[in-house]
Design goal:
- The protein has one domain.
- The protein is an alpha+beta fold and about 120 residues long.
- The strands form two sheets. The chain has a two-stranded antiparallel ribbon with strand order 1-2.
- Strand 1 and strand 2 form a beta hairpin.
- The two termini are about 30 Å apart.
- The protein is built from four helices and four strands, in the order ββαααβαβ.
- The chain is globular and about 45 Å long.
- About 40% of the residues lie in helices and about 15% in strands.
Length: about 120
């Protein structure tokens, strides 16, 4: 689910206590996808679709807040060979959803264009 399809409920102190999702369309587990393509999709979904939108919402609500150092630390704790490249890359894959709609292409035919990586070493 994209951020617009996600609701996070908080308690009186503002601590998240529940997450609600809608419209989980097209969830697919594809065993024949090469690791690199799967990683690209994961980065797009996790970082671009979710964390960038969440970071933007937090920054709008809490001026000056920068969540990216905490995200970097959290990702760096994981022993995956792709993590160092993710944290050092100047760009992330941005899926061309509007182009898919205009051309009537299937989501599996997605193309990606580079977006600035907020996780990159500064």
């Amino acid at each position: 689910a994209h951020l617009q399809n996600t609701l996070v409920a908080v308690d009186a102190s503002g601590t998240p206590v529940q997450a609600l999702f809608r419209d989980a369309e097209g969830v697919k587990l594809l065993a024949d996808v090469p690791r690199a393509a799967g990683w690209e999709r994961l980065v797009y979904c996790l970082i671009v679709n979710h964390l960038m939108e969440i970071a933007g919402a937090l920054a709008e609500r809490h001026r000056g807040y920068d969540p990216w150092p905490a995200v970097r630390r959290s990702l760096a704790r994981h022993d995956l060979p792709e993590i160092p490249a993710l944290l050092g890359s100047p760009t992330l894959p941005g899926k061309t959803n509007l182009l898919l709609r205009w051309t009537g292409a299937d989501g599996a035919d997605a193309r990606y264009l580079p977006l600035r990586n907020p996780l990159a070493d500064r």
